[in-house]
Automatic annotation (TrEMBL):
Phylogenetic lineage: Bacteria, Bacillati, Bacillota, Bacilli, Bacillales
Protein topology in the membrane: Multi-pass membrane protein
Recorded GO CC terms: plasma membrane
GO molecular function: transmembrane transporter activity
Compartments where found: Cell membrane
Protein name in the entry: Drug efflux system protein MdtG
């Protein structure tokens, strides 16, 4: 058995491929959009609120496709689904570079968002859940951290490209780069489940020293989808997803915020790149913390930590050193979206119907985009300042702490009512 434990498992190849795919599509396309806002509004004379409205449209599309995405990936060849998704996302992003009217962003964000749902939101948690029955938290942390490393490279690169090559050419370059890497990576390495390679999930064949029972079946314990969706725990989780996404959405406005306080586009790109390093450290740190003190306590700590950068940006926004410190710490909070969201889902409801519960709760991510991203843009457009936005983010951070506590009180009720099936001890 010792030799089996040392044998390299294909799950690690899946992790590398998923991490690169999610990281490139998210950092190279999805989150890079904020860098383009000010150059586009200045060049085309479009209002910030009007332009950022395309984020709302994208979020509506995301909300519609989230419940369908998991079913589509499970039903069809995952490689074909992800390659088509990449062509939709990359092609639409490149098309932005040809636009002269805000309607172009409104139209092309639709196919871009359909592709993004599969690549940046659903593929990672579902594939890693399929392949890892052990080290789930570590795998998620590595996935998010990899995205942070990629972002640390691509964000400042994108800022420099916009300054040197213009925003139109930068759209073309980023879309082409990401597509050329992701398509062959998906085709040659991604598989939906271990059975497609004649394997068991990582950790499924391990047994306890004092038992003949395989460890894998315990992963099926938890609350059914039917019981979960009616619970206060689910409402708390849904609202947590909504608020943490609203909080993280402020990262799309950090570049305009920096420019509004006297910094140039190159500094903004560098700052956002450094923020990605905060995402790397945060993802790995939160993964380790969740294993040690549980997802609940780690999530509360993450929300409390997020108060620090908001206070810095509120009081001393023009200080370049403190600005870098603030966005780096904020990167920790952003990382919690990809790491703590899935971990809180499994901590609250177990693994019995994880994919269905997570996909439904993740609609909160999309709903937040409908409200928060353009909302911040219009608040800035009306007031000429981001100060009111920062106050809103501070309130959301505090509210999320109470939501986490409420959700776990809801879990306690589920367990006490017998809704937790095949219950095993679950660390909170």
């Amino acid at each position: 058995m010792k030799n089996n434990k040392k044998k390299f498992h294909y799950a690690w190849i899946i992790l590398i491929s998923v991490a690169l795919t999610v990281g490139l599509t998210k950092a190279g396309i999805s989150t890079a959009g904020g860098l383009f806002l000010t150059p586009i509004t200045d060049d085309l004379g479009i209002g910030m609120g009007s332009l950022t409205l395309y984020f709302s449209i994208a979020s509506i599309v995301t909300m519609v496709f989230l419940p369908l995405a998991g079913k589509i990936i499970a039903k069809y060849d995952v490689r074909a689904v992800l390659i088509i998704a990449m062509l939709l996302q990359g092609g639409s992003f490149a098309a932005f570079g040809l636009m002269n009217s805000v309607w172009g962003w409104y139209i092309f964000c639709i196919p871009m968002s359909i592709g993004s749902v599969f690549l940046t939101q659903i593929a990672g948690p579902i594939l890693l859940n399929n392949w890892f029955k052990k080290h789930n938290g570590l795998a998620l942390g590595i996935m998010v951290a990899t995205g942070g490393v990629i972002g640390a490279i691509l964000q400042p690169t994108a800022g420099n490209l916009i300054a040197d090559q213009g925003w139109r050419n930068t759209y073309f370059i980023l879309a082409g780069l990401v597509t050329v890497i992701v398509v062959p990576l998906v085709f040659f390495t991604i598989r939906f489940a271990p059975k497609d390679k004649g394997l068991q999930p990582l950790g499924a064949d391990e047994v306890d020293e004092n038992s003949d029972t395989p460890a894998a079946p315990t992963a099926l314990s938890g609350v059914s989808f039917k019981n979960a969706k009616k619970s206060s725990a689910f409402v708390g989780l849904f609202l947590f997803f909504f608020l943490i996404t609203s909080i993280a959405s402020f990262s799309q406005h950090l570049a305009p915020f920096a420019l509004n306080h006297g910094f140039d586009i190159k500094f903004a790109g560098t700052a956002l790149g450094i923020m990605q390093l905060g995402i790397v450290i945060g993802a790995l740190s939160f993964g380790v913390l969740a294993d040690k003190i549980g997802a609940r306590n780690t999530a509360i700590f993450a929300m409390a930590l997020g108060i620090i950068p908001m206070v810095i940006l509120l009081l001393v926004p023009e200080n370049p050193t403190l600005f870098i410190v603030a966005v780096t710490i904020f990167g920790f909070v952003v990382s919690s979206l990809g790491t703590l969201g899935p971990l809180l889902t499994s901590a609250l409801f177990g693994m019995k119907d994880y994919a269905q519960i997570y996909s439904l709760a993740a609609i909160g991510l999309a709903v937040a985009g409908i409200v928060a991203l353009p909302g911040y843009g219009f608040m800035y457009q009306i007031t000429g300042s981001y100060y009111s936005v920062i106050i809103v983010v501070l309130v959301l951070l505090i509210a999320n702490i109470f939501l986490i506590l409420w959700a776990f009180m809801g879990k306690k009720k589920l367990v006490e009512s017998g809704a937790w099936e095949d219950e095993t001890t679950t660390k909170q």
